[in-house]
Write a structure and sequence with these properties.
The structure holds 2 protein chains of 2 kinds. Chain A is α+β, with helices and mostly antiparallel strands. Chain A has 3 domains: about 200 residues, Aldehyde ferredoxin oxidoreductase, N-terminal domain (Aldehyde Ferredoxin Oxidoreductase,  A, domain 1, 4-Layer Sandwich); about 200 residues, Aldehyde Ferredoxin Oxidoreductase Protein, subunit A, domain 2 (Orthogonal Bundle); about 160 residues, Aldehyde Ferredoxin Oxidoreductase Protein, subunit A, domain 3 (Orthogonal Bundle), CATH 1.10.599. In chain A, about 40% of the residues lie in helices and about 15% in strands. Chain A has 24 helices and 17 strands. In chain A, the strands form 4 sheets. In chain A, strands 2-1-6-3-4-5 form a 6-stranded mixed beta sheet, sandwiched between helices. Chain A has a 6-stranded mixed beta sheet with strand order 8-7-12-9-10-11. In chain A, strands 13-14-15 form a 3-stranded antiparallel beta sheet. In chain A, a hairpin with a 3-residue loop joins strand 10 and strand 11. In chain A, helix 1 crosses helix 2 and helix 13 runs parallel beside helix 16. The radius of gyration of chain A is 22 Å and the shape is globular. The two termini of chain A are about 30 Å apart. The model of chain A has no long low-confidence stretch (mean pLDDT about 95). By secondary structure, chain B is mainly beta. Chain B has a single domain, classed as Ubiquitin-like (UB roll), CATH 3.10.20. Helices cover about 10% and strands about 25% of the residues of chain B. A 5-stranded mixed beta sheet of chain B has the order 2-1-5-3-4. Chain B is globular. The chains are: A alpha+beta, B mainly beta. Chains A and B meet through helix 9 and helix 18 of A and loops of B.
């Protein structure tokens, strides 16, 4: 079996480090990673606690396929109560850290309490200790990563760390691992900072074992072949290949969702990244894979050395993580910027300081709208004009927010609190306080339903209605694919593999790999039922935290203002029609609460 | 007749031109065959800004000067 069978519990208040056996009954019902982490969170904390208090619990969770020979097996998830939303936060990441945690012999790392002084957790083989982080408190992600490796003379350590944004409570602070990959959403990095935990550094010395090695190798090789046939151009173009599709479709959120098409899209899309300019500079250097991945969608890019952002700053003259679709959207169309070097630099800053680019970009978009309305002025913004289209505003505010200086402290609140502060909550493009990704839900109706019902707030990765949304722009028939794909994605997120395989693999392909990996019989039906159980447990967490059906909604702009252009011109999101059907399909009451019958059916009663 | 064509995303690997010559009365489905873009690789086709749903590709006739956009499927990012 590919569960290691062990959990590492660290209580920072007491300084205790305690290994304990994995609850295999829970593993069988919740698989691993997102699902198993949710179960442990539910059993280990009161959902009502303040997200930034020591009573919140922070869990790093791997899946049974993490660290195996399966393609894309580098995934891990971070679970906690999110400070951005007050809801459950489940943020997953790739890179190499997750597999290394598994190789250290642990399926989950549970962090409780809060340290009196800054510390980092060091796991080197079977030696585990809390180390003083006072010398790296206040340092960036990149500085902390380098310092820890030098301190322990171990360049092979895999490190997940926070920057100053996490230390100082930016509500969308990320946990960045392996320099460029991040558990980015919902503010998991702020929770880590509230615990005075700067980093987790891991070097494992154990392997993983699977149930049937011969069958596992055979099945995973077959799956890799399927991926090779249908990876959708991700290696060559990356996820930013979607930018021009979103433009033509008319679902590309522009200038804080006032428009859905952006005239400068082709200056920040995948083709622009591949274009060599008059000086011979090309933004994209190469692609990069996470652990075990045969897709390799990651981007490694660099910025023109004469660009205003880095002209005299040699520390940024190196190659680093490049634009993916969400970062390109968040630093491009949604704030009206078409400067690819500025967008790339902002991406560097997000990784360096540890912040979620989606939430930052959409918060800045709301600030720009407030500025253009005259609600805020340069007196509020440290003298920087926050006009839509300003590349300078993007890069200056990225840095100020990362360092928590000046107006960056306001931007660090996130869009909801910032817009409330200035008396215009309607300008916040969020669900449950979390900012939208790069898809307008007036053109993509099922996406809107998925956003509204997302357990971690607005999120594009926890359901998949793209195909039905492209084919039919009405709200008809969207509840069922939204519900089913939410359940299915919950199962995939719990396996240890990446959702970017879903173009090539369906339930039978995942079940075949898990069945060769894990004890027991793993069928597509069992996976879907597990996914539904996980989704409902997340919902129970949120209800216990105080959220209600009133939180399953969208901003008025998307419900009342018709989309101005594109293939869905004239439409608004039809949430009022879709939501009752969705609740009914879920077996929930009209108030959005799972009925006793539903809970019993899923073993949650 | 000549129809203006734009493709998006990774579909540029199939067609990187700007126009295609088709028989009079050709449908969207026939145009995709001429362009050698597999139907399963297409997310949506629009003609003159209006969506042409998958089930209508075989019926939707094109006329000279139409602007056809062949969009790659969306996958999340």
């Amino acid at each position: 079996m590919s569960w290691q069978g062990r959990v590492l519990r660290v209580n920072l208040t007491r300084g205790d480090i305690t290994p304990e056996p994995l609850n295999m009954e829970w593993a069988n019902d919740y698989i691993g990673e997102r699902g198993l982490g949710t179960k442990y969170l539910w059993e280990n904390m009161d959902p009502k606690v303040d997200a930034m208090s020591p009573d919140n619990v922070l869990i790093f969770a791997t899946g049974p396929l993490t660290g195996t020979n399966a393609s894309t097996s580098g995934r891990y998830a971070v679970l906690t109560k999110g400070p951005l939303t007050g809801a459950i936060a489940c943020s997953n990441s790739g890179g190499k850290f997750g597999a290394e945690l598994k190789y250290a012999g642990y399926d989950l790392l549970i962090v409780e309490g809060s340290s009196e002084k800054p510390v980092y957790l060091l796991i080197e083989g079977d030696e585990i200790s809390l180390q003083s982080a006072e010398k790296i408190w206040g340092k960036t992600v990149w500085e902390a990563d380098e310092w820890i490796k030098k301190q322990h003379h171990n360049p092979m350590l895999k490190i997940a760390t926070i920057g100053v944004a996490g230390e100082r409570g930016v509500r969308y602070a990320a946990i960045v691992n392996d320099l460029h990959r991040a558990a980015g959403r919902s503010g998991v990095g702020a929770v880590m900072g509230s615990k005075n935990l700067k980093a987790v550094a891991v070097r494992g010395s154990h392997g993983v074992q699977v149930k049937d090695p011969k069958r596992f190798i055979q099945v995973t090789n077959e799956m890799k072949n399927l991926l090779a046939e249908d990876a959708g151009g991700l290696a060559k173009y990356g996820t930013n290949a979607m930018m021009d599709t979103m433009q033509e479709f008319g679902a590309l959120p522009t200038r804080n969702f006032q428009e859905v098409q952006f005239s400068g899209y082709d200056k920040v899309d995948a083709r622009a990244m591949l274009k060599t300019d008059e000086t011979g500079h090309r933004n994209l250097i190469t692609n990069k894979a996470c652990f075990g991945c045969t897709i390799a969608c990651g981007r490694i890019a660099h910025i023109r050395k004469d660009h205003f952002t880095i002209q005299n700053r040699k520390e940024y003259w190196h190659a680093s993580g490049g634009l993916e679709y969400e970062t390109a959207f968040a630093f491009g169309p949604v704030i009206g910027v078409d400067d690819i070097d500025a967008c790339t630099f902002a991406g560097y800053l997000m990784n360096e300081h540890g912040m979620d680019p989606i939430s930052f970009g959409v918060t800045l978009a709301a600030a720009m709208e407030l500025f253009e309305m005259g609600v805020i002025t340069t007196d509020d913004t440290d003298g920087v004009p926050l006009n839509f289209g300003s590349a300078e505003a993007l890069t200056v505010m990225s840095e100020k927010t990362g360092k928590q200086e000046g107006f960056g402290q306001v931007l660090g609140l996130g869009s909801r609190l910032m817009c409330q502060k200035y008396g215009h909550p309607e300008l916040s493009m969020t669900v449950k306080g979390q900012e939208f990704a790069g898809y307008d839900s007036r053109a993509l109706q099922g996406m809107g339903l998925g956003y509204a019902t997302g357990n971690r707030g607005a999120c594009h990765l926890k359901h998949d209605t793209f195909e039905v949304d492209m084919d039919d722009q009405s709200g008809e028939g969207k509840a069922e694919p939204c519900k089913t794909s939410q359940d299915w994605t919950a199962a995939v997120d719990s396996s240890g593999l990446c959702v970017f395989t879903l173009g090539a693999w369906g339930a039978p392909e995942f079940a075949a790999q898990l069945d060769a990996d894990c004890e027991g019989e793993w069928t597509p039906e069992r996976l879907l039922e597990s996914g539904e159980r996980i989704w409902n447990l997340e919902r129970l967490f949120n209800l216990a935290a105080g959220l209600t059906c009133a939180d399953d909604t969208l901003p008025e702009r998307l419900l009342k203002d018709p989309v101005p252009s594109g293939t869905a011109k004239g439409r608004v999101n039809e949430l009022g029609k879709m939501l009752p059907e969705y609740y009914s399909l879920r077996g929930w009451s009209e108030q959005g609460e799972p009925t006793p019958r539903t809970l019993t059916r899923l073993g949650l009663g | 007749m000549q129809v203006e064509v734009r493709v998006t995303g990774q579909l540029i690997d199939y067609f990187s031109g700007t126009h295609v010559n088709l028989d009079e009365g050709a449908t969207v489905e026939q145009a995709l065959v001429v362009l050698e873009i597999p139907a399963a690789s297409v997310g949506l086709v629009s003609v003159n800004g209006d969506a042409v749903p998958r089930e209508k590709r075989a019926q939707h006739g094109l006329v000279a000067g139409d602007q056809m956009v062949v969009m790659a499927p969306l996958t999340g990012g």
